[in-house]
Amino acid sequence: MQNRQMAECLGVSTRKVDMITFAIGSGFAGVAGCALTLLGAIGPTIGTNYIIDAFMVVVVGGVGALFGAVAGAFGIGIFNTVFEYVTSASIGKVLIFLLIIAFLQWRPSGLVVSRSRSLD
Fold first, then answer.
1. Model's pTM, two decimal places?
2. For residue 97, which of 71, 74, 70, 79 has the smallest C-alpha distance?
3. Distances (CA, A) of 14 to 4, 22, 28, 61, 117
4. By the 8 A CB rule, do 61 and 71 touch?
5. Which of 2, 27, 41, 83 is 20 to 30 A removed from 13 (C-alpha atoms)?
């Protein structure tokens, strides 16, 4: 991913990796589409109710970290349920936003930080 030419020199078939990655991503998208059709009406705006929550999960978990995304999803879900139980649904959502903003002020890179070589 970071150095395609070096991977090819080491014998990695980058075209095959691209095809497999696309196939796995398409499969996940198909499964997610099937799961969303079970939750509500099918239409062009079927996933718009979930896009903000999904973005929050990725940012809180750490961009590019699967374990962080899972942990962020569990954390946001648990806190959202607790806040909705204590207050109303809309106030609970506002409290979640405030909690995420406070967390990102403390740890801007998310729960799990991807270490890489960089110039900064």
1. 0.65
2. 79
3. 7, 12, 21, 28, 22
4. yes
5. 27
Mean predicted lDDT score pLDDT of the chain: 86
- 10-44 pLDDT, tens digit per residue, is 888 989 999 999 999 999 999 988 888 888 788 88
Average of pLDDT values for 70-83? 91
Q: Are 79 and 99 in contact (CB under 8 A)?
A: yes
96 near 79, Cβ under 8 Å? yes
Neighbours of 42 (CB within 10 A): 8
Q: Classify 58 as helix, strand or coil.
A: helix
